[in-house]
Design brief:
single chain, alpha+beta, Tetrahydropterin Synthase, Chain A, four-stranded antiparallel sheet, three-stranded antiparallel sheet, elongated
Length: about 325
């Protein structure tokens, strides 16, 4: 082999060796990158309206992981389930159909007095216990639906048809919510009912006009009673105020009269005391004062003989009318 051939062979060996070395380095970097990506896959984010639950080989290791950025071991070691606990979910259930299908729930409810009604209800609920909701039972939403139907039937069986159509709607809603929540808690669904609203309730269409007449009559009676109570509430306070005013005036008049009588009594006693000291002079002064009051415009003349302030002759009054 000549020198050129040897150099070419050596060059090929060098190229193959260099390529093999670069390939090995590339594989190592690629493996490091994959390993890093694998470990970074353990980073997860829980949103503000969620909580997270971390499972390790199927067993729950962490509950109620709060919102934010967290880390867990990559799959298949750890897995994360997220539940929206702050979201209020809504569903509508009804016994409302004129057709009866053997494969579905009955389309009507029977009241306590054995009357038929159709109704629609709206249920608002939240996930209260994420662990129970996810792992304890299967299909909690379906259990909620069946529990609500059962509670509706039980609650309305305690109410008369006239009451449920008029005054007992709120009580029916509260009883339904209480009974349904009791069943959900017993089954461990992890659900909490926030409210139950009776959207609509009616008797069968064939008797609906008669029921409406009865309801209207009751509403009219209730309106009349309300108006009468409003009138009574308006009149009675006014009458009580007038009575209190009259009593107050009478008491004030009484106090004035008593005070006046007491003043006159004290005045009379003082006059009597002076009269006893000098009967003639006091009597004469009283006559003069009385004449001044009775005939203020008349001219009066008094005649008599006095010495040292004492009468020595009869005193006489002469009155000259104007």
């Amino acid at each position: 082999m000549d020198k050129d051939s040897k150099k070419l062979v050596e060059l090929k060996k060098d190229v193959v060796s260099a390529f093999a070395m670069n390939t090995n380095k590339l594989y190592r970097w690629f493996a490091v990158l994959l390993f890093g990506i694998y470990f970074l896959s353990g980073v997860y984010i829980v949103k503000t309206n969620e909580v997270g639950l971390v499972r390790r080989f199927g067993k729950v290791m962490r509950e109620n992981v709060e919102s934010g950025i967290h880390y867990r071991m990559p799959w298949p070691i750890d897995e994360v389930d997220k539940v929206k606990i702050k979201e209020v979910m809504r569903t509508e259930l009804s016994f409302w159909s004129d057709k009866i299908d053997k494969n579905t729930l009955p389309s009507y409810c029977i009241t306590g007095d054995k009357n038929i009604v159709h109704l629609k209800m709206i249920i608002n609920y939240q996930i209260k216990e994420p662990k129970s909701f996810l792992y304890t039972i299967y299909n909690p939403d379906k259990i909620l639906e069946n529990s609500m139907y059962s509670a509706m039937v039980e609650a309305i069986a305690k109410v008369k048809v006239d009451d449920i159509l008029t005054t007992a709607k709120y009580r029916f809603q509260q009883d339904t919510m209480r009974l349904c929540q009791k069943r959900l808690n017993f089954l461990g669904t992890g659900l909490e009912i926030k409210s139950v609203d009776l959207k609509n309730i009616e008797p069968p269409s064939k008797v609906l006009p008669m029921f409406k007449d009865v309801i209207n009559a009751r509403e009219d009676a209730s309106t009349m009673v309300h108006d009468a109570e409003s009138y009574s509430n308006k009149i009675i306070p006014n009458a009580q105020a007038e009575a209190a005013k009259a009593i107050s005036q009478a008491r004030a008049y009484k106090i004035r009269k008593i005070a006046y009588a007491q003043g006159e009594t004290r005045k009379f006693l003082k006059i009597l005391e002076e009269y006893k000291k000098a009967e003639d002079v006091t009597e004469f002064r009283l006559h003069v004062e009385t004449l001044e009051k009775v005939m203020p415009k008349a001219k009066k003349y008094i005649t008599g003989s006095y010495k040292d302030g004492e009468e020595i002759a009869n005193t006489k009054f002469f009155i000259n009318s104007p």
